[in-house]
Amino acid sequence: MPSARHAMVGIVLTAAAAVASCEPTVPTEQSSPTALVATQSAAPDVPVPLNFVAHLIGASEVPARESPAVGEAKFQLSPDGTQLEYRLISSNIHNVIVSHIHLGAADVAGPVTVFLFGPVAAGGGRSDGVLAHGTITAANLIGPLAGHPFSDLIAAMSAGGTYVNVHTNDGVDGINTGPGDFPGGEIRGQIRLLGPTP
To answer: What is the pLDDT of residue 194?
Structure first.
């Protein structure tokens, strides 16, 4: 009566014989390049989420500001194109009162289209880290984009026609007295398309 060990040896020998009978230089149906190409062309056309970024510094403001503050805004468009997730990060900035997306080229002070943060009371002190995060939809569009399709904002962002800025105010009489007191904007960065991955 054959033992389990004999049965195992038989299975191994049968498998070895099957492998030995294969010729490695002859392509099989699975390795055919045409099958791979056909599979690739049959893939559904699913949109890839788009990512955008803006690096914020005082020198990019109009007019330029001397400030040690820096920031970054990151945006990701949903695959269906109906919402934009964002995160606004700042460092070494004081008394932030509000932040927006504006329409405008790099050398232009343009109109507000979306609130990202605030408004809050002046004189709030230092901010480091995530200043704001959330989701933007067509319902959040204001100013010249109010009532427009969400795709109009995305088109402007993709073309480099939008920027983010962060406004500050120390709550003391006098404006534009230095870092922490630039109500018109202390740091700014043009939004640019980053691609499908952040």
So the answer is: 87
* Number of domain units in the chain: 2
55 and 37 co-located in one domain: no
SS (H, E, C) the chain: CCCHHHHHHHHHHHHHHHHHCCCCCCCCHHHCHHHHHHHHHCCCCCCCCCEEEEEEEHHHCCCCCCCCCEEEEEEEECCCCCCEEEEEEEEEEECEEEEEEEECCCCCCCCEEEEEECCCCCCCCEEEEEEEEEEECHHHCCHHHCCCCHHHHHHHHHCCCEEEEEEECCCCCCCCCECCECCCCCEEEECEEEECCC
**100 and 118 share a domain?**
yes
Mean pLDDT of the chain: 82
Rounded Cα gap, residues 114 and 68, in angstroms: 25
Q: Residue 49: which pLDDT band, with cuts at 50, 70 and 90?
A: low
In whole angstroms, give the CA distance from residue 140 to residue 120: 18
Tell me which amino acid residue 93 is.
Answer: I
Residue 109, pLDDT score? 94
Query: The dihedral of CA 113, 114, 117, 118: what is its sign?
Result: positive
Domain limits for position 93: 51-195
* pTM of the shown model: 0.75
Block residue for tokens 């640019």: 192
Assess whether 63 and 89 both reside in one domain: yes
